[in-house]
Structure formats: C-alpha cells, structure tokens
Amino acid sequence: AVNSGLAGIFAVAAWRAAVARGTDLSDNSGGLPLRRALGEDTNRRDLVLDFTGMGKSFGDGDLENVCRSLPGQLTTLSLSFEGCHGLTSVAEFGQCLERLGA
Length: 102
Prior knowledge:
Layout: H1 2-21, H2 34-39, E1 46-50, H3 60-69, E2 76-80, H4 91-101
Parallel strand pairs: 1-2
Helix pairs in contact: 3-4
C-alpha cells in the first residue's frame, strides 16, 4: 500500500507535464503508466488535478485518461479545465462519475 500510495503521489505530480508533452499515459507500449499508478492508489480519498490554461494540449482523450484512472474510493474530486480548448465533450466523464458513485 505504501508503494502504491507513493506511485499515486508521483502520478498526480507528473500528470499535467506529461499531458503537455503528449506523453502516452497508458500501460501499453512503454508509455508512462500514470493511469495505473493513480488507479492503484487505494488509500487516496482526495484528488486535485488542474489543467487550467492548457489550450488545445488537453483534449477529450486526456479527459478519458483521467476518468479511467480515478480510484474508486475517492470522496473528494477537484478538476479544473478552464481554457482547455481541445476539450469538446464531458459526457463520458459524467458516466464515469456515475460508476464511481455506485
């Protein structure tokens, strides 16, 4: 649990920079496995991710990565997408939040 918690802390810290660089966040083909690291952070109750001002660098696929990585035991979630012009829809994210509440 300590290792997964530490990996989750690093994942949150690196997420914005990785998105800005266009880094593959999945576990596939040698990508940076931030999605897995955050999802396996089983002790995390609060999550804050700020993508403010990322323009077209943050898009629908990036929001999907966030959605797929959310730990199921979260009680507080704070996300900021102001100025993310590459984001065209949050519909899938709403469905993701419904799954978390189940």
